[in-house]
Amino acid sequence: MITIPYLTAVSTYFSYGLLFAFGQLRDYSRRIFDWWSTNNLHGYAPICLAHEDFYIRRLYHRIQDCFGRPISSAPDAWVDVVERFSNDNNKTLKRTTKSTRCLNLGSYNYLGFGSYDEYCTPLVIDSLKKFSPSTCSSRVDAGTTSVHAELEECVAKYVGKPAAIVTGMGYATNSAIIPVLIGKGGLIISDSLNHTSIVNGARGSGATIRVFQHNTPAHLERVLKEQIAEGQPRTHRPWKKIMVVVEGIYSMEGEICQLPEIVSICKKYKAYVYLDEAHSIGAIGKTGRGVCELLGVDTADVDIMMGTFTKSFGSCGGYIAGSKDLIQYLKYQCPAHLYATSISTPSAQQIISAVKVILGEDGSNRGAQKLARIRENSNFFRAELQKMGFEVLGDNDSPVMPIMLYNPAKIPAFSRECLRENVAVVVVGFPATPLLLARARICISASHSREDLIKALQVISKAGDLTGIKYFPAAPKKQEEVKDTIKLD
Amino acid sequence: MYVRALPTTDVNRNTEWFTYPGVWTTYIIILFFSWLLVLSVFHCSPGMAWTIVHLAHFTVTYHSFHWKKGTPFGDDQGIYNRLTWWEQIDNGKQLTRNRKFLTVVPIVLYLIASHTTDYQHPMLFLNTLAVFVMVVAKFPHMHKVRIFGINGDQ
Predict the structure, then answer these.
(1) Alpha-carbon separation of residue A358 from A277, A292, A369 (angstroms)
(2) What is its EC class (chain A) (predicted)?
(3) Which tens digits make up the pLDDT trace of A376-414?
């Protein structure tokens, strides 16, 4: 539940209206100007439709220097950000050879595996020498090594399911697996704030898609009842399959899914549950097993558990864990398994080693320390930000904390001011977030020390004062932790 | 002072911003301030200024609501490319609160403009034409209708 000051809402709409109007004026003058000049591209079809890239050209390019900043070191707690300059008002950006060492608050480096690790990296280098960087073939051809088999067993055991299948890319895991699981005649009910990969997979499957209000189990129940009563769109026959897709932690809100209620509703109406744990696997829960462990949901109740290794394990790729029959079926049918290149072997080794560290099987307690540290860091940072008067979203224990900015001009102002003080933050605007609700998203890592966090707080407070985003009075007001029934520990 | 922004179920990012609080107020404030602007720039009578505001409002809203089709970004893979903004709002459901508000605004503007110009002739004709086109374009029966193929697809 986001609370906006009314004046801020009105001024944000007005700012976007102004930006839109100026963009249209520039487009018109460009069209008139181009009508006068000759062009020698007769007979060629346009690359994109006239106004499909309006947002990119007229709004995104103006503040392009805040997005996609290249880095020149591993994304650890501190990172080298390459400096760029522009001669034509941000239309093109040129890299210089200099880079600044900045505090990294933007990488999803939840457990600190993003750079050299004393246990994982030597094993990965050995694996790189023994196997090669890439298997250069799909899993069914020549792309399955012993490491792949070990990885799938390791992931299945870690997540708590009988079997797992691993693909080389996290996005492709969702968009290639959902069409295999459900097709025409089926119903997908997805949370309104689900990630684009899920939306693409759902659209590609051919099933009917319905959306329920974000994280509201009551609305999910209403949608389910309505849809089951109505049946398929024109024939009103019963649905062949109903699947409810939710995420563990929503990356733009930092909120944790209300899994126990959703699972009980799905059991009542006999719908399948697909849980996307991209951000929550490895980051929350006592042993890092994700949102099921945190909220006390039995993994046998969640039918399909999906996750990615990019966030907490410092690698790449995604997995699907489920029953043995499901995984066997996917191995026969899923295009990501049959035709796409398998996950590179050193990356697979990194995942196996990271899981061993988390579970303490490497002989030290670094895993437990990391998990405790990320929980402490997140709670400390969130509490301090809220005391300063920022509007911070997300639940307690979630390492993702978006700070609300709202006005479009504050997006580049906040980002550039923080960069000037050597803190690298990620800002997100429309269309990744709703129009009004632009935010700066902070991702806390276990490799941030207490001094790093205090420096970050000072810089963010200063930038926040300059841009005027302390929308709440600076008092310890706990607004966003009021989730009624779930006890998060 | 503070309002709660409830999450919507509208997946179309092009129209979802219209469901958040504060849009109606912003719209009315923009109209009022543009009237003040026209008055101060052109030094005309208040009625003339309202007529100018009404006609400018007609041009701008007709172009952006009923002429331009699709969305200004490419992420949705072009599924709304045949629909104007008016046809995209509220997922195509007719007679919602937003649609009713947007139909009432040009009518109120018309009444103000014709009253303050004392129903005199050239302005009255132009205003009436504008409001007629605006209101007919917003009828539920005109959903996805292209008269004589104007603004139809290639």
Answers:
(1) 17, 17, 9
(2) transferase
(3) 999 999 999 999 999 998 888 889 999 999 999 999 999
Give the mean pLDDT of chain B. Answer: 88
* Interface with chain A: mutation pick from B10, B15, B26, B60, highest number of A CBs within 10 Å: B26
Q: Which residue of A has its CA nearest to B8?
A: A213
Q: And the tokens for A147?
A: 């490491």
Buried b (16+ CB within 10 A) or exposed e, A214-244: bbbbebbbebbeebeeeebeeeeeebeebbb
Residue A247 per-residue DSSP state: E
pLDDT tens track for A116-135: 889 999 999 999 999 989 99
Q: Which two tokens stand for residue A48?
A: 């994109």
- pLDDT over threshold 90, residue A489: no
User: Which chain A residues contact residue B71 at CB under 8 A?
Assistant: 52
Per-residue pLDDT, B134: 92
Query: A37, B63 in Cβ contact below 8 A?
Result: no
Question: In degrees rounded to 5, what are phi and psi of residue A166?
Answer: -115, 135
- Residue A478: pLDDT over 60: no
CATH superfamily of A366-403+439-467: Aspartate Aminotransferase, domain 1 (3.90.1150.10)
pLDDT, chain A, mean: 90
A59 DSSP 8-state letter? I
Q: Is A226 on the interface with B (CB under 8 A)?
A: no
Tell whether A468 is within 8 A of chain B (Cβ).
Answer: no
CATH of domain A119-359: 3.40.640.10
**How high is the pLDDT of residue A266?**
93
> Measured between alpha carbons, how far is A258 from B101 in angstroms, rounded to an integer?
36
The answer to whether A193 contacts chain B (CB < 8 Å) is yes
Cβ of B21 within 8 Å of Cβ of A4? The answer is yes
Enclosing H/E stretch for A171: helix A170-181
Q: What is the pLDDT of residue B122?
A: 84
A188 neighbourhood in chain B, CB within 8 Å: none
* Chain A residues inside the 8 Å CB shell of B78: 49, 52
What does the domain layout of chain A look like in residue ranges? Answer: 119-359, 366-403+439-467
Phi, psi of A208 (to 5 degrees): -80, 140
> Does residue A212 sit at the B interface (CB-CB below 8 Å)?
yes
Q: What is the pTM of this model?
A: 0.88
Whether A51 and B1 lie within 8 Å, measured CB to CB: no
User: Taking CB atoms and an 8 Å limit, are A192 and B7 in contact across chains?
Assistant: yes
| Rounded distance between C-alpha atoms, residue A462 and residue A484, angstroms | 34
- Give the helix, strand, coil percentages of chain B, each rounded to 5: 65, 5, 35
Say how far apart CA A202 and CA B41 lie, in whole Å.
53
Structure tokens at B87: 């046809």
Once rounded to an integer, what is the mean pLDDT over residues A88-99?
A: 90
**A431 preceded by cis ω (within 30°)?**
yes
Per residue in B63-103, pLDDT (tens digit) is: 989 988 888 887 777 788 888 999 998 888 888 899 999 99
Q: What is the average pLDDT across A245-262?
A: 91
